[in-house]
Amino acid sequence: MPTGVYVFPRPNAANVVDDVIASARAAYDAGVRQIWLAQQLVPDAIGLAGLIGNAVPGLGVGTSVVPINPRHPLIIAAQAQTTQAAAHGHFSLGLGLGAHAVETEAFGYAWPNTVQRLREHLTILRTIFETGEVDFHGEEISAVSNWPVTMAGGTPVPVYVAAMGPKALRVTGELADGTMPYLAGPRTLREFIIPTITEAAEKAGRPAPRIIAAAPALVHDDLDEARAIAAEKLAFYQAIPSYQKVIAREGLDSAVELAALGKPDAVAERMQEYLDAGATDVILNPLRTESGDLEALWEVARNIDAT
């Protein structure tokens, strides 16, 4: 999997779908071969990935990440397979556990037993993708269907989870194809995330998991200004307990210290630290999307792949 770059709709876009497809096509023309879409309330990341994958043949598209709550795995399976067929095999499904504070604000409810729900969600997805059938009754989720649950061209679907805690990593290693942590630094990858998920995968007889490390990035001539921009953009994550824990595990006080900032060579060198720590893949998450910023990151991504 080549170096990835997040693509976001521009705030002033007249049509979000047209705008993101145009950005994805421009990234592909610039040499980027993998783009990722974050899930907010809108647009629907899985559906948008299918539209992009169909419009830009050969471009890898993925979600990073779609929270499993309040989505039922039967619905996720249907969406993912439709997108995989549209993308002709170039789609990757990235899932997340969500954050209770965000869920409560948006839906008025936060789903309990997060790790158990993740286990059951992944079990159902694997059953569908691997057998084409489902008859599962869990503690948190059940899924039964007497109708077809797979479609031509829709499988296989690689599944990754934004797992960073020990329990979630073990479930992910057992049932998914890898993890895609955000704001987990090189030390945390090397000393904790990679050993934990790899051990779980080995015990389950699964292939070695992919470790897709995502980091905030900004190409900027003024490092102090870049750090100020990063501090503003990353403040949201510093208030979420799961990110607080992973930043503390790295031995840092601020998420800014995990970002790839500065001139192109400095950004590339920072991302190389993640690869040297054992990440199999990296994703650049742009801190700004103004004209020129994305193009600069696309060039960095292409140069990382060339080394």
UniProtKB/TrEMBL annotation:
Gene Ontology molecular function, alphabetical: oxidoreductase activity, acting on paired donors, with incorporation or reduction of molecular oxygen
Annotated Gene3D superfamilies: Luciferase-like domain
NCBIfam families from the UniProt entry: F420_MSMEG_4879 (TIGR03564)
One matching Pfam family: Bac_luciferase
Residue ranges of every copy of the Luciferase-like domain listed in the record: 11-280
Keyword Oxidoreductase listed: yes
Keywords: Oxidoreductase
Protein name: F420-dependent oxidoreductase
